[in-house]
Design goal:
The protein has three helices and five strands; from the N terminus they run ββαααβββ. The protein is of the alpha+beta class. The protein folds into two domains: about 90 residues, no CATH class; about 40 residues, no CATH class. The structure holds zinc ion.
Amino acid sequence: MIGGAFMGNTVTGERTTNPVGQVVPEVHAKNEINPAVLRRADELFERPGGNTLHEVTEAYQGALISQLNRVSAGVGSETNPIYKAAHSAATEQSGEIRSRYLDRMGFPTPGMLPGVIQGAEFYAVDAQGRERPIMRIMQ
Ligand SMILES: [Zn+2]
């Protein structure tokens, strides 16, 4: 996971009462975040809390879709329509976080090379197109 991830939701089969008193299908939504990475990205983009708010509202929007359709959602991917709709409906991210794999010397690898990868780094690209480091993890 880079900074945050849509981990899907489950329509439980139970019913619950929403804040305006309607009885509706109960949905449990899950998003995961790496708070250290999101905080650093938010600092770079000068939008404190922005990426965490995106993840929370993305889980909520996904749950609303699943509640309406009574269909649980899987983890986020480009082929998951509930995820894509939830991502679009959520509050805007403070900025994009990218990542790349590193070899044992700490140099970027051209892709996912099992046995070669010894770490990863996360970075953001600022408005001027410069890469701004967020975090580096080595085994
Ligand atoms: Zn998203």
